[in-house]
Amino acid sequence: MKRNYVIPFFILHKGCPHQCIFCDQNRITGQRNIHPEEDADTIERYLSTIPSNGVNIEVGFFGGTFTGLAAEAQEGFLRAAYPFIAEGRVRGIRLSTRPDFIDKGGLELLRRYGVVCVELGVQSMSDRVLSVSRRGYTALDVERASRMILKEGFMLGHQIMVGLPSSRPEHEYYTARRARELGASQIRIYPLIVIKGTELAEWWTAKRYEPLKEEDAVERCMRLILYFEAHNVKVIRCGLHPSEGLLNGSDYLAGPFHPSLRQKVESRIFAVMLERLLPNTGITAVLFNPGDEAALFGFQGKNSVLLHKISGPGKAALTRDIEVPRGCLRVTERQGERERVFTLDRKQAAEQTIPELLSP
Ligand code: SF4
Fold first, then answer.
1. Hey, which bits of 85-203 come out as E strands?
2. How far is the CA of 19 from the centre of ligand 1 (A)?
3. What domains appear along the chain, each with residue ranges and CATH number?
4. Reported pTM
5. pLDDT tens digits, residue range 128-142?
6. Which residues line ligand 1 (CB under 6 A)?
7. Can you tell me the distance from the alpha carbon of 111 to that of 154, in angstroms, rounded to the nearest whole number?
8. Sign of CA dihedral 251, 254, 255, 261
């Protein structure tokens, strides 16, 4: 399968009808605004560094409300990228926008210029959560926009958040379920953090908002990822891109920001699989794909205690094996004279952690 590579452009806050309580795109992305005249040079520069084989290359416009821009402004950005699509050097364009800025005429314009995927900044499908965060639209707007995007032939992406004010895990599960039911095929999950200068920062200072602890964010993200995977929906991002201001702390106040958040989630998924093995007493071997070594041992060795309970002198042998599918463990278990070999995969991790979500 070909890898996706997106050449990113940021239209920071452009087209946004207001400032959402948690958002400061300049600080979150660490990028500067672009001008359409620069698009072509930038794309050319990126293309010179991307291997052309085995990669789907797209141009992406993120960081604002693309379809909230005036039509001429949208065309300015799209027109600069379009020749690369016409020449077959770029597969298409993706962009992010708000659910309340989608209409048929606007989608026709996007299609004319080779847009293939529209990512909606959904954040939550709970009207209460949306209203507390003053997002300015309802779940009904998300449903209407999602249906229209698919009907007009685009791929649909949903961007969702965990840890929004007043959002509980049930709201986030419901948001995930609706994303799948509405036909989103690509998901980005962002745990909410408190950025300096935002309204949320004032709420946090006044103790009106308490962000998730990192382990809770990892747990919530893991459940959503397992849910989407169980339904063949791709999670293309989990956690914010690490801008310089977030990394050095100059823009960050509080909340579950970690540049390796996805790795922590992957480690936690292996921890769930290992926990599932603990009651099995006769395990003699555990094989894993070498590509999973970091996740299996856990971020900074976090799973080593669990691993020691299963493998080690007098216990199961832990061995790399390229034949084991990624994300799985192949386990040999002896009970008396009988030996059985079975594979633990992420679906079983999902059954272990989110059985209530997997029922129809
Ligand atoms: S619509 Fe999106 S980009 Fe614009 S302020 Fe709100 S969260 Fe930020």
1. 92-97, 115-123, 155-162, 186-191, 194-195
2. 6
3. 3-259 (3.20.20.70), 270-358 (3.30.2320)
4. 0.92
5. 999 999 999 999 999
6. 13, 16, 19-20, 23, 25, 64-65, 98, 121
7. 8
8. positive
